Amino acid sequence: MVAAYQDAAAAGIPPALLFREQVNWLNAREAAARRSPAAIAGLYRERIRDLLSEASAGER
Predict the structure, then answer these.
(1) Residue 58 in contact with residue 11, Cβ under 8 Å?
(2) CA distance 16 to 30
(3) Partner of 36 at 20 to 30 A CA spacing, among 10, 11, 53, 58?
(4) How far apart, in whole angstroms, are the C-alpha atoms of residue 32 and residue 13?
(5) Between the CA of residue 38 and those of 2, 54, 59, what are the distances in Å?
(6) Residue by residue, what is the 3-state secondary structure of 3-58?
(7) How far is the C-alpha of 14 from the C-alpha of 30, rounded, in Å?
(8) How would you write the pLDDT of the chain (60 residues) with one tens digit per residue?
């Protein structure tokens, strides 16, 4: 996830936007951990996919 976050930042995604999204994701991860630890892996895959998509869109 670190590499995907760095790619999004390098692609020019505004740092404030990345930070806000990451905080929201962290809150969702914590809520999921309380409900079902198995759900966390899916949240990681989804966040990485979102970051990579943002990086790709930012490079255009």
Answers:
(1) yes
(2) 21
(3) 53
(4) 27
(5) 21, 26, 33
(6) HHHHHHHHCCCCHHHHHHHHHHHHHHHHHHHHHCCCHHHHHHHHHHHHHHHHHHHH
(7) 25
(8) 899 999 999 999 999 999 999 999 999 999 888 888 788 888 999 999 999 999 998 764
Can you tell me which residue has the tokens 């809520």?
Answer: 31
What is the spatial distance between Cα 52 and Cα 7, in angstroms, rounded to a whole number? 7
The rounded distance, in Å, linking the Cα atoms of 36 and 30 is 10
How far apart (Å, rounded) are the C-alpha atoms in residues 44 and 13? 19
Please state whether the predicted TM-score (pTM) of the whole model is above 0.85.
no
**Residue 19 amino acid letter:** F
Q: What are phi and psi of 13, to 5 degrees?
A: -65, 130
